[in-house]
Amino acid sequence: MVGDSSEQWLNEAITKGYIDFCEYNKFTFIKEIGKGGFGTVARYKWKGADLDVALKCLKVDKELSEKIIQDFIQEV
């Protein structure tokens, strides 16, 4: 189990600019376009920007292993 270290990794990745963080309420769901081991990908409308974007919504899982985190990093 990684628990705290997965949250620490995510916060560090956001801080270092590897992952962009946007408030969820800035988007309007349109439709799901994919599902995989890390979560779902969906099409959203970015409010106020007149853009459609794909967002990956990660599964919240207390049982994340270091291997899963590394696989996700490679995917990104």
UniProtKB/TrEMBL annotation:
SUPFAM superfamilies: Protein kinase-like (PK-like). Keywords: ATP-binding, Nucleotide-binding. Gene3D superfamilies: Phosphorylase Kinase, domain 1 (3.30.200.20). Residues 27-76 form the Protein kinase domain. One of its GO terms (molecular function) is ATP binding. The keyword Hydrolase does not apply. This is Protein kinase domain-containing protein. It comes from Gigaspora rosea.
